[in-house]
Amino acid sequence: MEELGLSVDALDKELRALLQKDINFDSGTILGSMCTRPHNLAIDIFTRYIEKNIGDPGLVSSTVELEKEVIAMLSSLLSLKNGFGYVVTGGTEANILALWTARKIAKSSSSIKEVIVPDSAHFSFDKAGDLLGLRIKRIPLTSTLQVDLEKVKKAITPRTIALVGVAGTTSLGIVDPIKELSDIALVHNLYLHIDAAFGGYVLPFFKDLGFPSPQFSFRLKGISSVTIDPHKMGMAVIPSGCILYRTEDLARKVSPTVSYLSGGENAHATIVGTRSGASVLAVWSLLKHLGKAGYRTIIRRCMEITFALAEEIKSIEDVELVIDPVINVLGITSRVFSIIDIAHKLREKDWAIALFPNHIRIVIMPHVYPEHIAHFIDDLKKVLDELREQKK
Ligand SMILES: Cc1ncc(COP(=O)(O)O)c(C=O)c1O
Questions:
Q1: Does CATH number 1.10.8.640 belong to domain 8-37+291-391?
Q2: How do beta strands 266-267 and 329-333 pair?
């Protein structure tokens, strides 16, 4: 740190220059992210209320009420009348909270406690396992890339404390057989957490849009908690995640009481202490402003582009889809060329795509337009031509 500070103008100039390598969502080149440019309303509300710390709830009791409304609106989207929960920093925090809660209520007396997750589960479950001293058992997938239910059943032991299902996997947007997982959880009296960080803002709109609509909501009685992230398809600002619990009791399992807060004694049920009240208000505003109809329009547009891209990929020689897209996440693979070579060449052409071991992931977020896809397809064809040339 220098002795004398910079003027605002000088600082602005320096910062702009220093940030040149960052890619913005409006560049049209980000096809691999599960985040998007937040809705303008969310940006406006977030900046207006930026000082609010909901980690000191007594200071912002009105914001606390609106957080309850957010939880009620998202719970009802997932068919739960009186849901409980919190706006958190994202899917990782929500998933860790869910497993923390499961550990708190675990009946297993074994010193080793296990959580059964699909092999496709997000790496936040490995973080949770490490932090909470839980053994994360990853279960192989079937040919439909959903968790293998027979293997789930076989993996259950007296050490098992929870099951996890994913509604919209990170790599391909697949939805696990949640109804069956719910049945297994009820039979074995296990905590079932559903990670719908991405799919939670997509799948509830599918029925009205006429798309196949896999079950994953709280209507399934075995589900204890759900992760749903407003900062992904909810178009909210970063950070905005959400954990929803079926009961108030579950929502309070990890809440130590804090006595020193300026707003008075309060219970803290999230991992972070200081928490953005502005995020809560931005999520609330978007839910109120867009309503179901607004979100449905956004999802329809993303799905139309996804289906169009899927058809394009099918028509291109030497690449193929890993599986037909279920939601607005699409995997491209190749039997002819290394997917790493294809990804590197696309990245050289400035495409921000996500690379998984056997495929490139494209996520059709609200910032993606048909012209971006047309440009991407042109570049993909060029990349394949270059690789064919190199092979000669
Ligand atoms: C299914 C799923 N769960 C959890 C997460 C973690 O979310 P975050 O990055 O907001 O912590 C992701 C991130 O992409 C995800 O795809």
A1: no
A2: unpaired
pLDDT tens per residue, range 111-153: 999 999 999 999 999 999 999 999 999 999 999 999 999 999 9
CA of 170 to the centre of ligand 1 (A): 7
Decide if pLDDT at 108 tops 90.
Answer: no
Beta bridge partners, 276, equal: 53
CATH 3.30.70.60 for domain 41-289: no
Residue with the nearest Cα to atom 8 of ligand 1?
91
Distance 183 CA to ligand 1 centre (A): 25
Looking at the CA of residue 196, tell me the nearest atom of ligand 1: 1
Domain boundaries, the chain: 8-37+291-391, 41-289
114 lines ligand 1 (CB under 6 A): no
Establish whether residue 229 lines the binding site of ligand 1, counting it when its CB lies within 6 angstroms of any ligand atom: yes
**Nearest residue (CA) to ligand 1, atom 6:** 91
Check if 176 has its Cβ closer than 6 Å to any atom of ligand 1: no
Distance between CA atoms of residues 185 and 316, nearest Å: 43
Task: Establish whether domains 8-37+291-391 and 41-289 are of one fold.
Answer: no
CA distances from 288 to 76, 117, 281, 285 (A): 13, 34, 10, 5
Longest dimension (CA), the chain: 73
Per-residue pLDDT at 110 exceeds 90: no
Task: Give the pLDDT band (50/70/90) at residue 107.
Answer: confident
Using the mean position of ligand 1's atoms as its centre, give its distance from the Cα of residue 111 in Å. Answer: 29
Q: Which two tokens stand for residue 58?
A: 């007594």
What is the Å distance from ligand 1's center to 238 Cα? 12
pLDDT in tens, 348-382: 999 999 999 999 999 999 999 999 999 999 999 99
